[in-house]
């Protein structure tokens, strides 16, 4: 029985869905900086959603204990399936599976996986500034947000269009997002994610991008959870494949608990 | 004392791991070492029935070291533990010694493995093949239920989130004296246990249907469990233990467990989690007066009058704070005799892999209660350190 049938026409995220959502505001590029906000957001969506993805990289977490680096490998299929396994560092052996709105985590010493639900979704993933909530929900920006272009600002010397995104419906983890999109490359370079009462929760900053086919993909990102304090997480991809074949068997409890 | 049983266990574990090595070497393997040591100094209140009650102090250490590794087709785990009350009486044991093979469509596990059927943290009636309803729980332990058994297991995936599992367990060894020598010996094959479970998770709800036949307690065991999220995480199970001989008092073997878990982000680095569980045995004792107990109240498979009461509960409250501090309250409560075992604890993680804690536990109840304050250790105070890697 397959509760989350794979739809070949569905769009997908790259990387594990978590990282994808992290990237959602920033791995994007647009073709025409003169477009209105809706068109710009639609193009950003078209760029960030994939049929399947595979990537290898590292997560570097800096906090009060110092810096720790963990390697990972991730896979995604369709819009609702993703799987990540940590391959080195303290988190080695830990696996995360997302099937639709359900997230399971398996630890190497535990005999059965933990289902992440409710408020536990706000827990940190592997001690990073990234939460399980960031992995969940819809991927599409146009489905979730109503955009407004609020002006132009320079970001590290690069002229940027500033977008404000307001959630269209309740239940979106970050009801308000502010995004800086480069006018030169039409790539979002920074995003700030806010709570309902406009409190800054997280900041994502793109440190490097790479051209993969027709897409511009962020391959190094720094994320800061402002509620954690004195911590930052950077993601760096060393290998990335988009729309490459990915085995469906990876996205199952059988694989997770192996 | 090195017993025959221990030697057999260790030999079997070594053989299992040895058999796995060639297969492991034939593929890309990945081996991981982990461990944990918990060392503490504790003070205990005296047994009030002693002629001259006196407080006592004790050093305690518990640790485990494990290796887990394998490839995409075979995995193995070897994990040992030690505990000691003093240098004179160290105790060593084996927690895990299993090998897991993967074939298309199914996988098998052989060896000393962990049993964890059904949902539940302290009370879990869905855990048919191990005792997850007893009150013998160390509230300060990181794993409240970590039973292991020698088992053979087949696991078949039925979909992304569904599976069926069948398992057989060898009976526990018993101490026997044969030809003047006392040792642990294997038990009769009649005392083996086995069962199977079906787990499905439609639309985020988890359902588990399980059956087991236990030759050592002469019981058929059937359970239905569920787990879902509705504001909080909820889980529950109901179980019937039916005697092999078809005793008419089968209803005395009915039990249920229910639990809920909640987690709240309080902001500014504070977080709160709560867990509440209850174990219900409707046909067990609801009075503290033993004269009201009858043998028919005894649970199926037990020898005489049933001591277990009809209701127990577990409660846990944990507050996490900035700067790696947390404080927690845990309590087992016996409402029938109005007694409780409570533990308050403060944890601090000053360095990565190092935790320090201060904990106090109390027994609250009269002399004949489940938790009597007059018993040895009615009040304990402990200061400890934990190192994990």
Summarize the structure.
By secondary structure, chain A is mainly beta.
Average per-residue pLDDT of chain A, rounded, comes to 81
State the separation between the terminal residues of chain A, measured CA to CA. 20 Å
The radius of gyration computed from the alpha-carbon positions of chain A, rounded to a whole number of angstroms, is 17 Å
Order of helices and strands of chain B: HEEEEEEEEEEEEEEEEEEEE
Largest sheet of chain A: 13 strands, antiparallel
Strand composition percent of chain A: 35-45%
How large is the radius of gyration of chain B? 23 Å
Mean pLDDT of chain B: 85
Helix content of chain A: 10-25%
Major sheet size, sense and barrel closure of chain B: 18 strands, antiparallel, barrel
Count helical runs of chain B.
1
How would you describe the overall organization of this protein?
The complex is a heterodimer of chains A (258) and B (389). Chain A has 258 residues and is mostly beta strands. Helices cover 11% and strands 44% of the residues of chain A. Chain A is built from four helices and 13 strands. A 13-stranded antiparallel sheet of chain A has the order 6-5-4-3-2-1-13-12-11-10-9-8-7. The longest helix of chain A is centred in the first third of the chain and has 12 residues, at 37-48. Helices cover 6% and strands 54% of the residues of chain B. Chain B has an 18-stranded antiparallel β-barrel. Chain B starts with a helix and ends with a strand. Classes of the chains: A mainly beta (258), B mainly beta (389). At the A-B interface, loops of A face strand 1, strand 5 and strand 14 of B.
Layout of secondary structure:
The complex is a heterodimer of chains A (258) and B (389).
Chain A: H1 17-24, H2 37-48, E1 52-63, E2 66-77, E3 81-86, E4 95-99, E5 102-106, E6 114-116, H3 141-144, E7 145-155, E8 158-167, E9 176-182, E10 188-194, E11 200-212, E12 215-225, E13 232-242, H4 253-256
Antiparallel strand pairs in A: 1-2, 1-13, 2-3, 3-4, 4-5, 5-6, 7-8, 8-9, 9-10, 10-11, 11-12, 12-13
Chain B: H1 4-25, E1 30-44, E2 56-70, E3 74-84, E4 90-103, E5 106-114, E6 148-157, E7 163-169, E8 174-178, E9 181-185, E10 193-200, E11 206-214, E12 219-230, E13 232-243, E14 254-267, E15 270-280, E16 311-321, E17 325-334, E18 339-351, E19 354-364, E20 379-388
């Amino acid at each position: 029985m397959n509760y989350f049938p794979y739809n070949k026409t569905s769009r997908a995220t790259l990387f594990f869905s978590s990282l994808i959502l992290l990237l959602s505001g920033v791995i994007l590029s647009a073709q025409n900086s003169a477009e209105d906000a809706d068109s710009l957001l639609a193009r950003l969506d078209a760029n960030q959603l994939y049929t399947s993805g595979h990537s290898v990289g590292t997560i570097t977490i800096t906090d009060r204990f110092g810096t720790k680096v963990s390697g990972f490998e991730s896979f995604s299929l369709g819009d609702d399936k993703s799987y990540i396994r940590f391959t080195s560092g303290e988190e080695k052996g830990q696996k995360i599976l997302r099937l639709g709105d359900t997230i399971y985590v398996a630890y190497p010493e535990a005999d059965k996986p933990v289902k992440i639900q409710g408020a536990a979704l706000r827990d940190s993933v592997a001690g990073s500034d990234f939460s399980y909530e960031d992995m969940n929900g819809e991927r599409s920006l146009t489905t979730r947000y109503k955009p407004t272009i609020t002006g132009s600002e320079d970001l590290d010397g690069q002229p940027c269009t500033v977008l404000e995104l307001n959630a269209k419906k309740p239940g979106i983890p970050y009801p308000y997002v502010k995004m800086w999109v480069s006018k030169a490359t039409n790539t979002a370079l920074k995003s700030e994610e806010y709570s309902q009462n406009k409190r800054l929760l997280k900041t994502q900053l793109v440190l490097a991008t790479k051209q993969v086919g027709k897409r511009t993909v962020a391959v190094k990102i720094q994320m800061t959870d402002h509620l954690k304090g004195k911590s930052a997480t950077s993601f760096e991809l060393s290998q990335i494949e988009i729309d490459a074949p990915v085995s469906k068997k990876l996205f199952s409890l059988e694989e997770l608990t192996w | 004392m090195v017993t025959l049983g221990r030697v057999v266990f260790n030999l079997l574990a070594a053989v299992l791991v040895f058999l796995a090595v060639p297969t492991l070497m034939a593929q890309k393997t990945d081996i991981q070492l982990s461990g944990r040591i918990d060392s503490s100094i504790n003070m205990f209140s005296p047994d009030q029935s002693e002629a001259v009650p006196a407080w006592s102090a004790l050093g305690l250490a518990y640790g485990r070291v494990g290796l887990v590794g394998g490839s995409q087709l075979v995995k193995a785990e070897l994990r040992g533990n030690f505990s000691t009350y003093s240098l004179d009486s160290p105790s060593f044991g084996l927690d895990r010694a299993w090998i897991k093979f993967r074939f298309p469509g199914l996988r098998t596990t052989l060896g000393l493995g962990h049993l964890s059927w059904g949902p539940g943290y302290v009370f879990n009636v869905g855990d048919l093949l191990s005792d997850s309803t007893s009150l013998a729980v160390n509230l300060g332990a990181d794993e409240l239920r970590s039973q292991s058994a020698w088992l053979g297991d087949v696991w078949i995936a039925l979909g992304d989130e569904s599976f069926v599992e069948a398992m057989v367990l060898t009976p526990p060894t018993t101490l026997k004296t044969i030809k003047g020598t006392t040792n642990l010996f294997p038990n009769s094959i009649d005392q083996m246990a086995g069962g199977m479970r079906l787990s499905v998770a439609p639309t985020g709800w988890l359902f588990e249907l399980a059956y087991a036949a236990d030759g050592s307690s002469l019981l058929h065991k059937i359970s239905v469990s569920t787990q879902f999220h509705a504001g909080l995480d909820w889980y529950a199970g109901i179980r019937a233990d039916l005697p092999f001989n078809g005793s008419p008092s089968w209803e005395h073997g009915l039990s249920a467990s229910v639990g809920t878990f909640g987690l709240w982000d309080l902001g500014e680095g504070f977080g709160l989690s709560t867990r509440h569980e209850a174990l219900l045995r409707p046909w067990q004792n609801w009075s503290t007066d033993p004269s009201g107990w009858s043998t028919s109240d005894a649970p199926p498979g037990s020898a005489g009058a049933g001591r277990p009461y009809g209701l127990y509960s577990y409660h846990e409250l944990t507050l996490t704070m900035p700067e790696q501090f947390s404080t927690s309250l845990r309590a087992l409560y016996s409402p029938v005799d109005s007694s409780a075992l409570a533990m308050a604890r403060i944890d601090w993680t000053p360095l990565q892999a190092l935790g320090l804690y201060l904990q106090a536990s109390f027994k609250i109840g009269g002399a004949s209660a489940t938790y009597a304050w007059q018993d040895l250790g009615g009040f304990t105070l402990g200061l400890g350190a934990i190192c994990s890697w």
